[in-house]
């Protein structure tokens, strides 16, 4: 009797699979999955270097360089893939257009890491000294984490937006801002 019941269950399960019935036997997954961790913190900085100004056709024109940095902190180390934290930057001009991009990363020597502090790209700027000109930076931090026992990964991302108002004197609005 027991063999007949088992045989009948196998036939019902096979029939359900062939017909696409929702009540078909659920095939267990060959691997386990889990959600990725929440993103850690990302802080971006953009600041102006010392300006050089000169009168050109009766207008005071200044040149300087804007610099960027990025800091990631509080990132999960459990299930972190590649022992690596990554930073990307997008410098934007006064109109919001991307004028320069860059990337950098930190890699753990022997294991996963939770923080990363890196220098980003710099960009030469020119503006009339009497104008209010602002440059901004999108700083994007990301890491990959294992989300299954078969090695699948998920990208976890966080970002920060910061700006600097250019200054002909090199101080005031041109100071480092995070």
Low-confidence stretches: 1-24, 172-178
Give the termini separation.
Answer: 76 Å
Strand pairing plus helix content: what structural class?
A: mainly beta
Q: Any idea what the radius of gyration is?
A: 27 Å
| Strand and helix order | HEEEEEEEE
Shape: elongated
Estimate the strand proportion: over 45%
What's the mean pLDDT score? 85
Q: Tally the helices: what do you get?
A: 1
Indicate the percent of residues in helices: 10-25%
* Main beta sheet: 4 strands, antiparallel
The strand count comes to 8
Supply the key terms.
4-stranded antiparallel beta sheet, 178 residues, mainly beta
Walk me through this protein's architecture.
The protein contains 1 helix and 8 strands; from the N terminus they run αββββββββ. It has one helix at 2-19; strands spanning 41-48, 52-56, 59-73, 84-92, 98-107, 116-128, 134-146, 153-165. The strands form 2 sheets. Strands 1, 2, 3 and 6 form a 4-stranded antiparallel beta sheet that branches. A 4-stranded antiparallel beta sheet has the order 5-4-7-8, with no helix packed on it.
Q: What is the structure about, briefly put?
A:
This protein has 178 residues and is mainly β.
What's the helix and strand layout?
Layout: H1 2-19, E1 41-48, E2 52-56, E3 59-73, E4 84-92, E5 98-107, E6 116-128, E7 134-146, E8 153-165
